[in-house]
Amino acid sequence: MIGTRRSWLALSAAAVLIWTAAxxxxxxxxxxxxxxxxxxxxxxxxxxxxxxxxxxxxxVVISYAASNTLIKQIEQxxxxxxxxxxxxxxxxxxAQKTLIKPDTRSNxxxxxxxxxxxxxxxxxVDVKPGFDLAALLKGGRLSMANVDAVPAGxxxxxxxERLGAWDGVKNKIAQADNVRxxxxxxxxxxxxxxxxxxxxxxADPSVKIVGTFPENTHPPITYPIxxxxxxxxxxxxxFLNYIKSPGARxxxxxxxxxxxxxxxxxx
Length: 267
Hints:
Blueprint: H1 2-14, H2 22-29, E1 33-38, H3 42-56, E2 60-65, H4 67-75, E3 82-84, H5 88-96, E4 106-110, E5 113-118, H6 133-137, E6 142-145, H7 151-163, H8 166-169, E7 173-176, H9 179-187, E8 193-197, H10 198-203, E9 207-212, E10 222-227, H11 236-243, H12 249-254, E11 258-259
Parallel strand pairs: 1-2, 1-3, 6-7, 6-8
Antiparallel strand pairs: 3-10, 4-10, 4-11, 5-8, 5-9
């Protein structure tokens, strides 16, 4: 076990990963619950974790990154207790690699895909088949999370393909490691437009939503949650249940997430 964690830490040092300095130490001490969560969950999940700490006196350490990055870290031996993905594909990958406890898996949240611009932009976009996204960029680039691996990027590419807009912009994409990094490019004015989740737009006052993608242009945006196979923290299951409880619901709804009921139904 020690050798596995050392191997993972060496891998982390070699890669540019989103990881707090305290997380490896906390996990090694076995005192805190360690959660690996999609970057788009940060604002809401931070609030839920703070509530849990106030109510239980137990601490949660959360590492945020793209879902593909996180599950690959877990595969390399990262000592996470809970994994929350921004799509079904990467949770399915975890299941196929026996990295999660399948009986603890459920669909937690839903989201919407939107087009954002800097807050001072005078723009409103009717996102529909045939819309000229390339012209709207006016020579700039479209900010997106990695379109081949990161859920938000994959959803965005699929939507643009179905709308007939992908070919016009595929050579004008500024790709980021995760959806929050894509949001930041628009927030800073480095890109005139970006494709992110509705909840990301709500978290950054420097951007505004200028268009919303029809839900039939991409697979349903679903966030599954599960305990990892190697988790031995007795508090992890309790925190997972707390995330799914009515007490956590307001924190997610405030950011614009849709709460999924049994069977993944929107509620």
